[in-house]
UniProtKB/TrEMBL annotation:
It comes from Anaerobacterium chartisolvens. Keywords: Cytoplasm, Methyltransferase, RNA-binding, S-adenosyl-L-methionine, Transferase. Residues 23-302 form the SAM-dependent MTase RsmB/NOP-type domain. One of its GO terms (molecular function) is RNA binding. This is NOL1/NOP2/sun family putative RNA methylase. The keyword RNA-binding applies.
Length: 461
């Protein structure tokens, strides 16, 4: 691999000779591949019983595993069922450091494509408020798809600048993940494009963006809350020096030490003018761990009196909208009787679209919202059309009418391609499953099963 000359010179000046040579040699070795089991849909124990892949635990994450090069988990039907998310092993660390819990308010500020978002959502177990934001409207599309694929019900997806969000969520969040845009040096082995983009987006430009982001993040975090800051670069300017500078200008914060496992290394005070506080941060190096380069810091905002006014939740609630009767009729015919959608939270109808959310949220007027909570479906003329997002967020036992295919069956292959299946059955909506895990909707006609699998999700072969 050909690495930028400026990068080589920089790392050579920062590191001892032996370590520098080990780092450079690591680029000639094979990369590592990982997946994280989606515990919103299946437990780790249950997935290991049915896994079609040989898996090895990743040391720094509870539900992450290495799989062998040459395996194709993205082509297996269990991927379409959202049982796992494919993710570079080191990139799973920040989501683990978040340690999300049910009922918390969490912001994933630079969220696309969504790997860390769905990891956080798994810990929240459908309770609390998860705001997933990305400033790129194109990247938000992938973020929404991955959130829906993994069955996340309590996420609001926004497409905003940190400044706009800070105005809508003053001291609102318990935890904020900043997986900051960075120079990407840690991804050189994984992605050749990262080498090319490094020439355009070097650490000086990235560190300026990171600083602007952190200034806004402080405004959105409640006293006693946590910032999880991470990058996929080696640059001290974007890592230890960034944390040191933030601490020096924000004395209301302290570093919470992250435990080191599996070859992880502590942050280097010598790269931050000797600031010992950064020793509580961690680094993942490709020559020390089975993964790519990453940095993570956990910062706690010291407890104190909140300066923000108590937030006023939106009064939007569509429980009394007459169109809900169409949804209730659909639910009575198709959903389990003990599945009380909206019962613990509230419904919201935006245009003709129906959403559910576990609790009330702040007024979001002026904020670009790309997805609001659990998208259930759309109202037509005297009817309700359920969404794909609804069915993939449900378990088989939540549904009255299902059809189940084996993962290696021809019928399942045809369904995932969007083809009509010539099958007899009782008329009506059916949830299609693979070995008991939901994939999508179909509609049973007289002698055929009409395919309702979304076009943008279908397989080409």
């Amino acid at each position: 691999m050909r690495l930028p000359e400026d990068f080589l010179n920089k790392m050579s000046a920062l590191m001892e000779k032996d370590e520098y040579e080990s780092l450079i040699q690591s680029y000639e070795k094979p990369r590592y591949y990982g997946l994280r089991i989606n515990t919103l849909k299946i437990s780790v124990e249950e997935f290991l019983k049915i896994s079609p892949f040989e898996l090895e635990p990743i040391p720094w994450v509870r539900d992450g595993f290495y799989y062998r090069e040459g395996e194709s988990p993205g082509k297996h039907p269990y991927y379409n069922a959202g049982l796992y998310y494919i993710q570079e092993p080191s990139a799973m660390l920040p989501g683990e450091v978040v340690d999300s819990q049910p009922g918390e308010r969490i912001l994933d500020l630079c969220a696309a494509p969504g790997g860390k978002t769905v990891q956080i959502a798994a810990g929240m177990k459908g309770r609390g408020i998860l705001v997933a934001n990305d400033i790129s409207s194109d990247r938000v599309k992938a973020l929404i798809k991955n959130i829906e694929l993994c069955g996340v019900r309590n996420a609001i997806v926004t497409n905003e600048t940190p400044q706009k969000l800070a105005g809508a969520f003053p001291e609102f969040f318990d935890k904020i993940l900043v997986d900051a845009p960075c120079s990407g040096e840690g991804m050189f082995r994984k992605d050749q494009d990262a080498v090319k983009s490094w020439e355009k987006f070097k650490s000086e430009k990235c560190s300026a963006m990171q600083w602007d982001i952190l200034e806004q993040v402080d405004k959105m975090l409640r006293p006693g809350g946590y910032i999880i800051y991470s990058t996929c670069t080696f640059s001290p300017e974007e890592n230890e020096k960034m944390i040191s500078a933030f601490l020096s200008l924000n004395n209301g914060y302290e570093v919470v030490e992250i435990s080191t496992v599996g070859g992880m290394e502590r942050g280097r005070p010598g790269w931050a003018e000797g600031n010992q506080a950064v020793a509580g941060t961690v680094r993942l190096w490709p020559h020390r761990v089975k993964g790519e380069g990453h940095f993570a810091a956990l910062l706690r905002k010291k407890a104190g009196e909140s300066r923000a006014a108590a937030y006023i939740p939106s009064d939007s609630d569509s429980r009394n909208d007459v169109r809900l009767n169409f949804f209730r009729s659909f639910a009575e015919e198709n959903l389990s009787e003990d599945l009380n959608i909206g019962g613990g939270g509230y419904f919201d109808i935006k245009g003709s679209n129906l959403y559910a959310f576990p609790e009330r949220v702040p007024e979001l007027k002026g904020i670009r919202v790309a997805k609001f909570g659990w998208y259930l479906g759309e109202f037509g003329k005297n009817r309700f059309e359920p969404s794909h997002s609804m069915v993939v967020s449900l378990n088989k036992q939540d549904l009255k009418n299902t059809i189940d295919f084996a993962c290696d069956s021809k019928e399942l292959s045809s369904y995932l391609k969007g083809e009509t299946l010539m099958l007899e059955g009782e008329k009506g909506m059916k949830a299609v499953c693979v070995n008991g895990y939901t994939l999508g909707w179909a509609k049973q006609m007289d002698y055929m099963l009409k395919n309702l699998y979304p076009k943008g999700w279908r397989r080409m072969s």
